[in-house]
Structure formats: C-alpha cells, structure tokens
Amino acid sequence: MPGGTIGGLTLGSAVMDHRRLGRSGLNISEITFGNWLTHGELVGREPALACIRAALDAGITTFDTADVYAQGAAEEVLGEALRPVRRSSVEIATKVCLPTGDGPNDRGLSRKHIMESCHASLRRLGTDYVDLYQAHRFDENTPLDETLIAFDDLIRQGKVLYLGVSEWTAPQIRAALDLGGELGLRSRIIANQPQYNMLWRVIEPEVLPLCRDEGIGQVVFQPLAQGVLTGKYLPGQPLPEGSRATGGGRAPRFISRVLGDELLDRVQSLRPLADAAGVSMAQLAVAWTLSQPGVSSAIIGATRPEQVTENAGAAGVQLPADVLAKIDEVLGDLVDRDPSKTARMMAVKDSWNRAVPDGR
C-alpha cells in the first residue's frame, strides 16, 4: 500500500495498519487522531477524553495537536488522556509557529520561540519528548538556518525525535533540505502535513513529487473537507443543527468555502460509490486519501466517539481503480489543483489567526 503498510498493532479492541513515515524508520497508524477545532474549543473535557479513548480502542496510535490549538488546552487534554498509556506505544506530534501570545516573540520560527514553545508543549503533554515536531508555517522573518539549527538542537537533546513541516510550498521544502545538507545537520524533514482531500489537491503538481523523491511522508489533514465529504450537508437545505458549520469558534469560516449547492450536489453523487463499496461517505473520503501515493496517514477529528470509530473504519479499505476513476469523473472541474493556493490559503488563514490565534 502507499506509504508502506507493515502490519497491525492491537492497542484496544481493533487492529490498525501502520505505515512508514516517508523513508524514516518511524511507523505511524494509517489513521491519526487530531484535535484541531475540537478539544478545548468546540467540545468540553469529558467528550474530548472519550474521543481519545475511542481512538485508542480503534487501534490508533498516532496523535496530532499543536501549541496554538485552543491556546494550549488541546495539548493538555491530549496529555491527560494519554497519561495511562505506555508512552512508547503511541506517537505524539505537535507544532510550533503560530501565535501563542501577544508578545513580539510569541510566534514564528526564531530560536527563542521554538525552544520556549517546545518546552511548554512538553509540559502540557506531560512527556519528555515528542515523536514529531512540525513547523506549522514557513517563517519569512527568521533566517532559515536559525530555524533548522534550533530544531536540530532539540533532536540532539532528545526532546524531539523527528522533524516535519505543515503547509510549506515545494520551494520552501527544497530550500530547507538543501540548507540542512550544507550545514551538516543531524535532523532532516521526514513529514509534511498538508490539507488534502478529494476536492483540494493543490499539493499534487509540486509538493507531492518533491516529497516522494526526498522520502517525505504526507500526514494529511481535512480528508473530509471539514465534514462536507460526509454528505451531511445537502444542496438547498438548511445546515444541520449541531454540525461544525453551525457551531461557534472559527469552524464556520473554514466550512463556508465548500458549501456551494453545485459542489454539494456532486458530493451526493458519490453516495452510490460508497454504497457499492460497502463503506460510509466519510470512510470513502478517508480511504481515498490513503490510496494516494506518498500518503502515510490521514488525520481525523471528532466531537463524538462514534465519529472516531466510523472514520477509523477507513483503515485497510482498498478502493478499486474504477472507483477512484469514477470519483474523479463525478467531481470533475470542482477539484482544485492550483499549487499557488497553498501559500495563498495560508495567508488567508494566518489573517484569521491574527484575530483569533488558534488556527490550523
């Protein structure tokens, strides 16, 4: 399978396939549980803990968070939930870059912010190290060598095991790889965390080919396009109560980008494909991402434990070539593959995060 499936690990009541993260030696679960826009923001402590327990029961061993999610509360909830679990049996990923305060050094990829944010994340997570530490954005205001050396020092100190980036463009990733080689650094980027789903494929022209050549695995977020690909949003119908689109926080702003009637109508046309494959619409969407070359894991989020169980059921699902081709045919010209939109979309999100510093 894409990404190198190497077998299963039983952690709860289910068996979950694992894949190598790029060309590294790190194995991560096909499904990663993430808590952006949920824990500490949309759901309370007890439902959040229940979701993480459901993830463990589903065999998920990889958990993704960030210092900026709910301004640290998401890391705290994750740390609390994983405290009873043997540390070496799970892989914890977090991120640094976006604003975590009002001070001039409370953001970016300076040595000061990286070091202080890493130590704060470790305290909140209740662990001595994180398996994967990711640069949440590219920082145009900090010399790249300063950023890479700071990450390398954390790896030498044993506080970080592997290095990743999130939503960097291909030229930015290329520059970091080349400079790291010139500096003789011990650390090397082995993971990229981009937005990627049936509708949003902007990484395909440039980022994916570079990452495949360089052995960088994709841990993709929003495989459900903020829930749109579950089919619960119907064309011409009111938004369902209790959905993210009607909730608080920043979720409605993200979802509104993909709620046009034409798109929703096309999404409903995917339902017969899901039915024929014997999976739910959500499972079809997650399985699609896992079928793409270079993808190591798909990040799912949830506000209820049953959502975790359903989405995790996409692990191991093999979509036939004719189903994949039919998905492309149904979605047609609504699929976005413009590589320039990675940087443009990040600029839009960052403007939101400056107003409400808590973003993906």
UniProtKB/TrEMBL annotation:
InterPro entries: K_chnl_volt-dep_bsu_KCNAB-rel (IPR005399), NAD(P)_OxRdtase_dom_sf (IPR036812), NADP_OxRdtase_dom (IPR023210). SUPFAM superfamilies: NAD(P)-linked oxidoreductase. One of its GO terms (molecular function) is oxidoreductase activity. Residues 30-330 form the NADP-dependent oxidoreductase domain. The keyword NADP applies. One of its GO terms (cellular component) is cytosol. Belongs to the shaker potassium channel beta subunit family. This is Aldo/keto reductase. It holds the Pfam family Aldo_ket_red. It comes from Actinoplanes cyaneus. It comes from the Bacteria.
